[in-house]
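Session log. Operator J.P. requested a structure for one protein chain; no other inputs attached. Running the standard single-chain path with token output.
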Amino acid sequence: MDSGNVTWILVSGALVLFMTPGLAFFYGGMVRSKNVLNMLMMNFWCILVVPLLWVVVGYSLSFNGSGSVLGNFGRAFGRGFDFGGIEPAVMIFLATFAAITPALISGAVADRMKFAAWAIFVPIWSLLVYVPVTYWVFAPNGWLKARGSLDFAGGTAIHVNAGIAALAVILVLGKRKGWPRDGAPPHSMPLVMLGTGILWFGWFGFNAGSALAANGVAVQAFINTFLAASAAGLAWALVERIRNGHFTNLGVASGIVAGLVAITPGCGYVTSMSAIAIGLIAGVVCSVAIGMKFKFGFDDSLDVIGVHLVGGLVGSLLIGFFADPKGLGFDFAPGLFFGGNLHLLGEQALANGVTMAYSFVVTFAIAKALNATMGIRVTADRESEGLDVTEHVETAYNNSERTMGRSH
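Structure written below.
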């Protein structure tokens, strides 16, 4: 056991765990005040359920085995780990990745999904969608990884996977009442900005921790994570200023997250200047992409598709241009701008295309099955009253006390 590497992996796992509450604040600030607790609970539910599932069977099926499509049960129920080595630390580090991935989907279904349906959807989706895609992309014998596709920290397996799954669920779920006629601006921008800061902080563990060692690759991934997020936030803000005449906090926050998403797949494969370029491209492309939901008529409440699906695709495909093994000093296929050919770009396109097709079809089937058996959408009256009260019998803000305070 290398104590330095194990320490870094464990610290990174704690950072990634902190990202899910950060995501809860980020999403929670953007929903209406009557639904903020529901959004927090949807995110925290993923931390309650998915890590347990991961330790019992998920990790084993995602990383243990010699097949090309799915792992085996050799590490199920915590069996076979050598606690004198690094694998147990890696296993629990990856549990935090598994937890946040379905949490990303919650932003698309905000304001209208039954919590009971969400509670069942999360473990089923994790097993049937997240686990096999993770094996294909990350496991040493996974068929997409074996072909040569690159995904350093989860652009394909996490962000593209969750983004396309979000589209499948909302097509079954339907639009919110009054959408898009009735606008629903964020009820608390301070919560959104707090969540953005926590996500950015935690993302250093997400990306740099994926080096699985305290080494130069981790340092480069850390630097790239910082630079790409800054560049994307700046690009989004400038696009917004040119288009609408204003710099907004929501635009900056969305741009930062888009940059974090886009650099995730390539953070260990590109140099610093390339990370800035990827961030700038992602900030522009994602800011344009979020408007597509109005054109195509799908109600993605908090722009999961425009930020995570599109941002993940942008970052993953740009590996085919910016991957630079000479600049980073270890061996992998170079991109077009650094002496490579179209092969790597083709593998990136294939990996993401397969992931989107599989994830969409299976997620759509899960949502349809749940809708047919228990229904996945709250009633119109419950939607109007708010999910905090109707689903959880709680309120985030005591409006009566606030009103009394003003009267005095």
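Operator note: The radius of gyration is 21 Å.
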